[in-house]
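Please annotate this fold before class:
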Amino acid sequence: MKKVKISNSDIEKLSNASQYPFPKYATQIINLLNSNAQGTRPAVVGQMSELIQEFDGKTLEEWIEWYSSKQPDAVTKATDKIFNMYQLMSEAFAAIDRPMIEAWVKDLVYNKTYCGLKFQSAIIAFLAGQYNKDWRLANVEEEARGIDGFVGDTPVQIKSSTYKLEARLGENIEIPIVYYDKKKDGISIEFDPSLFS
């Protein structure tokens, strides 16, 4: 496997697109804001994969003119949604102090880890019972591969439903995922039943 780095100036030349200079961490923060605000969803900015295929121009300037004629308010609407989320999150950010961060760490390390591990075994055991299969939790080597346990011979991961909202776009998970949501009266789970039939 070979690794090669393409410089921003080369990308700009090759793609005919200028690169915006952002301060360190700014794009991570804007991505988080956008994930919460859903500012660049197709309902707001259009289905980009389809639009780019319709476009028959050659330059960035032509794309901007063409896109702006097709989606005249899209950039403003997306910007407004993301900026509104920025204002809301700025208030939350200002409220965070060291004791709150410590409380968050304790909640993660104590509560969520303990409950998450207990939920894993309960969910895996429940699914095995529903499909009349044996079950077991993963060993250390299997956990390193992203497996939480097995229902019969089927490996599964158990994730909180909030996982879907946490912008884990860069993560490629090939193990089937069972999502759970802790309710007052129990745990709601979401899974593909064809995995266990």
In short: The CA atoms of residues 45 and 74 lie 5 Å apart.
